[in-house]
Design brief:
The protein has about 325 residues and is α/β, with parallel strands linked by helices. It has helices spanning about 15-30, 50-60, 70-85, 100-110, 125-135, 155-165, 185-200, 220-225, 255-265, 275-280, 290-310, and strands at about 95-100, 120-125, 140-145, 170-175, 200-205, 230-235, 250. It has a 7-stranded mixed sheet with strand order 1-7-6-5-4-2-3, sandwiched between helices.
Length: about 325
């Protein structure tokens, strides 16, 4: 079989960070000392209560399928977390537990968009966004950012992109952003969200780096306008140091719960059960002191890096909020 016999959907660019990690792991297996800087892997471990919860779930053999939407206890815990963290009330019924945020992107795109529709992303941005979009027969529209605007997106940027590319059906963005680390102001996030709602454009808010902020708390899109074109995606990978557990969540409009559930049932069945029990523990008060110490460590590392870069003449950089 020739390469032309394969689907074009699989003919996407590799996620280069993962390619680099594979090669680094090969070198590591030969005994070489490797410092991994290629993927967003926290240098900290999951909180101790998370490990204990996983052991208990294994001992109790609580590792069968769950409902496609996820464990009720976890969805309840996430609802309480949003009330405490963001002061917003979100019904547990609107949470969908996913296999990392990556599965959330797939579910959101499939539930909301048809082949050929346009999804706007920023440049620089998370490389896998464009590859996921292309693999689902959607069309990526890249919106370039610049240092003069602190590498942040505005509603004006979206309008300018539409003048060039035509109507944009969805906007996918992260704040704090990857790779810049910059955050949108509350007003800028409000403007983007409202603009999407008024235009009938889907607004996918990737909030995976929430909790890992140093100058101010990150604002959730839910805090500036919870409308029927908004889907929030997050993960336990970064703030909770649970990358390999492959567990995340979506918050979808009530009318989208059933379509997303049907897709989840058929594509993924359910998120990993063991990880769901562990995630419940990650949201507990017992995990908070350990998680706060992680952020303090990251801030110290960031400050040292910024000082070193500036001492060596590198100044044209984002502030890494």
């Amino acid at each position: 079989m020739t390469s032309s016999s394969f689907s074009n959907r699989g003919n996407i660019s590799s996620f280069l960070a993962m390619d680099v990690m594979r090669e680094a792991n090969i070198l590591q297996q030969t005994g070489q000392d490797i410092c991994h800087l290629e993927v967003g892997q926290p240098s900290t471990k999951a909180p101790q209560v998370v490990l204990e919860a996983a052991r208990q779930a294994l001992d109790s053999e609580l590792i069968g399928y769950t409902d496609a939407l996820g464990l009720d206890d976890l969805r309840q815990a996430l609802s309480a977390y949003y009330l405490k963290t963001y002061k917003v009330e979100v019904s547990p019924d609107r949470f969908v537990i996913t296999t990392g945020s990556s599965a959330g992107f797939i579910l959101a795109f499939l539930a909301c968009l048809d082949a050929g529709q346009q999804v706007a992303v920023t440049s620089p941005g998370y490389p896998a966004y464009i590859n996921i979009i292309k693999s689902l027969d959607l069309t990526p529209v890249t919106i370039p950012l610049c240092h003069e605007n602190n590498w942040t997106l505005s509603a004006t940027n979206v309008h300018d992109a539409e003048k060039t590319h035509g109507g944009i059906d969805a906007l996918l963005m992260a704040s704090p952003a990857n790779p810049t680390g910059t955050m949108l102001s509350k007003q800028a996030l409000t403007d983007l969200s409202l603009d999407c709602a008024q235009a009938g454009r889907w607004f996918f808010s990737d909030e995976i780096y929430h909790g890992l902020t140093y100058s101010q708390e990150a604002t959730s899109a839910l805090q500036v306008g919870d409308h029927d074109r908004l889907i929030v995606m997050n993960s336990f990978s970064k703030y909770f140091s649970m990358t390999g557990w492959r567990i995340g969540w979506m918050i979808v409009p009530s009318k989208m719960v059933r379509p997303v559930e049907r897709l989840q049932q058929n594509l993924f069945i359910s998120a990993p059960t063991l990880s769901q029990y562990a995630a419940c523990a990650a949201l507990s008060s017992a995990a908070q002191d350990e998680l706060k110490s992680h952020v303090e460590l990251y801030q110290d590392n960031r400050d040292k890096l910024f000082t070193c870069l500036q001492d060596n003449g590198v100044t044209n950089i984002a502030p890494a909020d």
